[in-house]
What does this fold into?
Amino acid sequence: MHLQFFGAAGEVTGSCHILEVGHHRILLDCGLIQGGVTHGERNREPFPFDAAQIDAVILSHAHIDHSGRLPLLHKRGFRGPVFATAACRDLARVLLLDCASIAAHDAARAARRRRRNGGQGTVEPLFTEADAEAVLGLFRSVRYGQPFQVLPGVELTFRDAGHILGSACVCLRLVEGDLERRLVFSGDLGQYDSPILRDPEAGIAADLVLMESTYGGRQHRDREATLAEFGEILLRTRRDGGNVLIPAFAVGRSQEVLYQLGTHYDEWQLADWQVFLDSPMAIEASEVYWRHSELFDEEARELHRREESMPALPNLRLCRTAEESMAINRFTNGAIVIAGSGMCTGGRIVHHLKHNLPRSECDLVFTGYQAAGTLGRALVDGRDEVRILGSVVPVNARVQTLGGFSAHGDQADLLRWYSGVEGEPPVWLVHGEPDASAALRDVLSRSGVQAGIAEPGLRLDLGTLGKTAQG
Ligand SMILES: [Zn+2]
It folds into this structure.
């Protein structure tokens, strides 16, 4: 019985771990590598295993850095089931099909570049829409809290991870001969007391824990303070006669921002604003959210019952087409525009930035992490001018970051989740930049917990719970 780290070991994206029980091989997640100059090539590299020999995949949640290489896995021969919650499956459909269209785009661009340099021929996309559809056809949904026999000797129970809709901690009871082990993979963990979603679940028993550490070294700003600040920004921008732009990820942040606008509608005097959700993918993801109200926390469920629609925002306009998106430009004031991409690296937000950044009465509000090298990061860093769609645009709008909106728990949340795992088992940290993982390891170690940081290729013997040779 072995566990080997492959992706999201020593970094944040590309989540993938390989579990061997008897003669069965199971993947925990199969995510896309994102960011960094070499991610394109890294995603194309051969897997360190034969895809056709993988018996099953267990998917913690739909985010692309956990699910994005599933179509590639199918393309390379995988035909087994993919176990996920029903909401995770529905969101994965939205995200994987979008991923396939981006892959087609990237391939066409690479082919054009090749032709410009005198070469010829087409460039094969990482995977196609047909590959995505094929792997989506292999999904089998498993309910939270109900033990499910995945394979002989492998029993799976999903527990709510509170990160995005349908996100789960993967709790496994593994049996091989006389050996029995309980392995828990946290997936990504949400903040406690965040809106819409339930808190991460406690009461999990484990002999070994695999735990995310994205914000292992950080404390988030208080949620109440974040909301108060958001309200002030809206009131001030309305007074100044400007617009508010909110770059947001399609799954998670977009829904939370809409939910907060809905629940603070009167307090923030939103009646004389127009709210635009300018992203077909975010619209689809929102529909999946509202369809799965059975997974909401008490408060959101109560609101859903009362209002019969979610979110309760009478002035919300959903912009699906390019024409609807361009029509937003007519609003010189009183528009709240939620659009992707979350880090301003592309998507419709870029056009809105071009129109509104030069205007000092407008506000740009970030709700998520901005990676180095992105336009979002340049703006957060306070640049006076930026390059957008080939022109230099002066930045006169106010740029704000609301830290309390993160989908990931901070160090206190991560420690709180671990304290809910019975038996104080050893921990291997995954899904974190080296500094963040080290910070969490140190605080766990100081309280007497045996904690290590996963490295790619490191293989653990689940019998002894110790390392074996690097593979
Ligand atoms: Zn995630």
Residues 61, 63, 163, 188 surround zinc ion (CB under 6 Å). The chain has a mean pLDDT of 93. The first helix runs from residue 39 to 44. The chain has two domains: 2-218+407-467, 223-405.
